[in-house]
Model the fold of this input.
Amino acid sequence: MKEFWQQTVLTPLRELGQQALSSLSSLVGVLILILLGLVVGWLAKELVYRALRLLQFDRFCDRLGVGPEIERLGVARSCSYLAGQVVQGIIILTALLAGLNAMRSPWTQNLVERFFLYLPHLLAALVILVLGTLISRFLGRSVLIAAVNENMPSARLLASLTRIFVMALTIVAALDELGISRTTIIVTFAILFGGLVTAAAIAFGLGARELARDLLQSQFRPRRGPEVEDQTRHL
Amino acid sequence: MAEEILKEHVKEELSALGPVEIIVGIPSYNNAQTIGHVVKAAQAGLLNYFPDRKALIVNSDGGSKDGTPQVVEQTSVDAHSLMLVSHPLYPVHRLTTPYHGLPGKGSAFRTLFRIAEVAQARALAVVDADLRSITPEWFHLLLQPLLALEFDYVAPYYKRHKYDGTITNSIVYPLTRVLYGRRICQPIGGEFGISGRLAGHFLRRDVWNTDVARYGIDIWMTTTAIAENFKVCQSYLGAKIHDPKDPGSDLSAMLVQVVGSVFSLMETYDSVWRNVLGSLPAPLLGFPFEVGLGPMPINVQRTLASFQQGVRDLLPIYEKVLTLQQLRELEACAAQPMHQFVLEDELWVAVIYSFALAYHRRVFDREHLVRSITPLYLGWVTSFARQTENETPAQVDARIERLCLVYEQLKPYLINQWPLKTGEKR
Done:
C-alpha cells in the first residue's frame, strides 16, 4: 500500500513540484532579465538623448526636414529623445527575447532565432521607407518650386510624378529587403509602370492631339509676336 | 590662435610697407574690362582728397581667368591727373592677392579686413570692380566720414531707377529698417566705408566658414554694424552704373542669397530687434544731385502670370507658411485683371513676416521656403510697376516710405509670433 502510495501520488507530486520549481526559476530569470532590460534601456535612452543633444542632433534633423515632419505627425518630442527611445525599445526587446530564450523551450528558442535572423531586414526596410518618404517629399517640392518659377504649365503634375516615382521605387526596395516575392514585385512594378506610361502616351496622343501639338509648339518653337523686354534689376 | 589667412609674401610686403592709414579694397572676378577704370578712380581719389595720408589699394581677386590682376598691375595714374591733383607725401601702393578660403565676396572682404588689421589702417573703402560710373569723389565720400567724423560704417546711397533694386525696396531695406531701427536705404549696395575698428570687429566674428563668406557679406556687415551699435551713415554717390550681370541669373537664387541672409540674421539678433520699435534716419552725407536715368522696361504681363501660377500651384506649400486669411487674400488678388491689379502693402508685409517666421521655425527646407517667395515677389513687382507707372521719383520714394511704415505698424505681430527659444522640447 505504501509502495502504491509512493508511486501513484508522491512521485508525480514531487516531479510536478520540481517542474514547477524549475519553471518558477525560469520565470524569475525572465523577470529579472526584463527588469534589467528596463533599467539598462532607460539608462541608455538618457545617455543617447543627452549625447545627441550635445552633438546638436536636433538641429541636424531640422536641416534634413525630419524634425518638422515628426512635429507635423503630432509627436511633441525632439529627434534626440526619439532616438533615445528607439535605443531603449531595442534593449527592452532584446531583454525580452533573451528571457524567452532562457526558458529553454524549443518553441521560444525557435521564435527568438527566427526573429534575430529577420530583424536586420526589418530594420533595413524601415530605414528605406523612412528615407524614401523624405526624399520623395523633398524632390517633389524641389520640382514643384523650380517648375513654377520657370513658369512651366504642368508644374504640379511633374511634382506628383516625381513623388510617385520615388515612392514606388522605395516600396519595391523595402519589399525586396523583406524578401516578399521579389520577382513578382519587380515584374508587377515594371508592368504597371510601363503600362501607365503607355496608356498615358496613347491617351494623350489620341484624346488630346491638339493639346499635345500646342504644348510641343510652345516648348520648342520660338514665341511669335513681340514681347516686352524685361530689364528689371532686382538687387 | 587665430587662423592666418594672408600668404607669406603678402605679409612680407605689408611689413615692408609699414603702417597705412587708408586702404581701398577692390574684390574682383573676371573684371578685366572695368577694373582699370576703378583702380584709376581710386588712385585719383586718394591723391586728390587724401594727399597727406599713406594709402594702399588692394585688389582681392577670386582667381580671374581674364587677366584681371594683370590689368591692376599695369594700371597707372595718368601723369597729368597726378600733376593736377597734388604731390602726395606717400606714394599710393598696389597689392594683388587672391582671396583666401571659400570662393566668394565674403572671403575677399575677410582678406581685406586682415590686411587692414596688419597695416593698422584707420579707414577702409571697398568698391565693386565692375563699376562704370565710379568717380574719384566716391572715395572721399566713403572715407571722409570715417576719418573726420568718426563714423564706423558708411553705406552708399544711390539714385536708382524705380525698377532698379526691387528686392531691396520691397524686402531688404524695409525689413532691415524695421528690425534694427536705422534707415539705411541701400543695405546691400556693394560700396562701403569701414573703420579700422569695425574691420577688426568683423574679422574676429566666427562667420567666415558660413554663407556670409559665400554671398551674404553685404547684408551681414550692414546688419552687424547697426545691431551692434556702431556709428553708421550714408553717403550720396549719385548713379550706380555697372556691368550688366549674367542675364540668366536665377531670381529665386538671388532671393535665397539675400532674403535668406536677412532671415538668418533675424535669428542671430532676435534679442536686439524684439526691443526696437520705429526707426531713425541714418545721416546722409554728400550733395544729393539729380542724375539722368535711362528707361527700364518691365514685362508686367509675365510677372503677373508668374504670380497667378504661383498662387495656384504652390498652394500646398503656402498652406504651411501663411494664415488662412492671407491665403484667401492672395487668391482674391490673383483673380484680379491686370488693369485693377494691386497687392496691398498690408498683405505683402504680412506675407513676408509669415515667411520669416516659417524660416525660423524650419517649417521645411529653408532654401525651398525662400525660393517659393519668387512668384509672390513678382506679384509685388507687378503691383508696384502698375501703381508707379506714371509717378515721379519723389512719388515713388513716398510709396516706398509708406510700405516701410506698414512694416513698422505690423512689427508687433512679428514679435508676438516669434518663438522665444527653439529646441527646448525634450
User: Anything to note?
Assistant: The domain at 8-285 of chain B is CATH 3.90.550.10 (Spore Coat Polysaccharide Biosynthesis Protein SpsA; Chain A).
